Amino acid sequence: MRILRYAGLIVVLTLMAVMPAGAASAGKEKDLGSFGAWRTYTYDEGGQTVCYMVTTKTLKSTALKKRVAPYLMVTHRPVEASTDVVSYGSGVLLDSKHGVNVRIGKASFDLFSVRDTAWARDALTDHKLVAALRDATSAQVLSIPAQHSVTGINDQFDLTGALSAYRAINKACGLPDIEPKKSVIKKTLVKKGGVQKLTVKKPAVKKPAGKPKNHGTQKKGVDGHAVRE
After folding, report:
1. Is residue 21 part of a domain?
2. How many other β-carbons are positioned within 10 Å of the β-carbon of residue 39?
3. Which helix (H) or strand (E) holds 48?
4. Which residues contact 164 (CB under 8 A, 6 or more apart)?
5. Rounded to whole angstroms, how far apart are CA atoms 55 and 157?
6. Which residues 6+ apart lie within 8 Å of 33 measured at CB?
């Protein structure tokens, strides 16, 4: 069911890659803007609004013969109560017997593949994956091509601007906005920095006013104690 649901979106993305500049905007596609490495779009599909963000920018990618540029995408279909659906397009046929692994920082997520595209198996994994990628700078995707004579595929995507792109598609699809974690961290650092920058002032030394009173001279007695004269 999930495969059929997102087949249309894959077709749209493929057509956009070969269309001349500006052709997408002439149809139902609406460009929401660029955010770092991401592009954001919305379009109408059978009367329902679909919003998605996609990046094809890689920091590292396995070069294969006749391979199309890989992509990483997040899609919302609010009418179907479907949000945060992650898909990976490998640009080459994959071996469905082997899973696709996405690594973001210390987190690892397993996807299943059909032909050249991979998805998460459940919504919970999608939500966790999106939460990880929108606050990260890069993601590594490992997969096995159907052509076994070729080594495994290792794609490293640039995730710069993911949070801003995610907020844009949320707004376009009427979904709740999320507060950037960076602003919270910044406030905390500023607060801590203020404490750390506090300087300790030395107490002022008061100077005696006027001449000291004469309390007489002292000398030591035979037993060592002071004797006032």
Report:
1. yes
2. 21
3. strand 48-55
4. 35, 36, 38
5. 8
6. 39, 40, 168
CA distance 175 to 79: 11
pTM equals: 0.68
Q: Determine how many CB atoms are found less than 10 A away from the CB of residue 77.
A: 19
Give the C-alpha separation, 73 to 52, whole Å: 7
pLDDT in tens, 160-189: 999 999 999 999 999 999 877 654 334 434
Q: CB-based contacts of 4: which residues, under 8 Å, 6+ apart?
A: none
Query: Do the Cβ atoms of 23 and 151 come closer than 8 Å?
Result: no
Secondary structure percentages of the chain, helix, strand, coil, to 5:
25, 35, 40
Query: The CATH number of the domain where 62 resides is what?
Result: 2.60.40.1880
Q: Is residue 168 part of a domain?
A: yes
**Positive or negative CA dihedral for 18, 23, 26, 30?**
positive
Exposure pattern of 82-115 as b/e (b: 16+ CB <10 Å)? bbbbbbbbbbbebeeeebbebebeeeebebbbee
Please state the domain count of the chain. 1
Span 103-143, pLDDT tens digits: 999 999 999 999 999 999 999 999 999 999 999 999 999 99
**Alpha helices, H only, 68-180:** 123-133, 162-172
Cα 156 → chain centroid: 14
